[in-house]
Amino acid sequence: MQNAAFRWWEVGERVKLEAMIAGKPIPAGLRRRSAKWLAVLLGIVPVGISLLGIGPAFAQAPEVETRLEEARQAIDAQEYDRARKILEPLAESGEARAQVGLGSLYATGRGVSQDDEEAVEWYQRAARQGHPIGQYNLGVCYMRGRGIEMDRVEALKWVSLSATQGFKPARTLHPALAASLDKEQREEGKRRAREWKPD
Hints:
Serine Threonine Protein Phosphatase 5, Tetratricopeptide repeat; 10 helices
């Protein structure tokens, strides 16, 4: 199942990436299907919330883990408002996984009014702590100009940082994003990534 899920996710990501780089809309339904396969790979819920980021990689106190599991279950049950109520206080307290999850709710308009700028705010908070999914999502927002002014050099910085942590979607996106920039822009993106320090 994992190998098949990875193949289908990878195909979907390539199609989405080609559309994003060309400035075209992502084919209808592809985002949902791609998120479903990625959810299978990452062990998160397949509800179309891209890269929720609630998983074991950033384990913390048991009560935090319990609350994150409750949020995951709420999302699984499509109780997005309940998930938001669980994630908000965790995100406000600095829990990076909750920040990514809350950003994803805002990005998709589940449990909240859809708000790309608010999504970017939460992704930035997680990314600045070094969370690879937050970094990836922030990079994609910069790449597409979604919720923030388009800046492909800054996008390369964040995607590079995520890729160096081994996050597979970032590793897939990185070469194509870098190829879409000229040499000077690529070098600037690399420099920014090298000089970046977590908050």
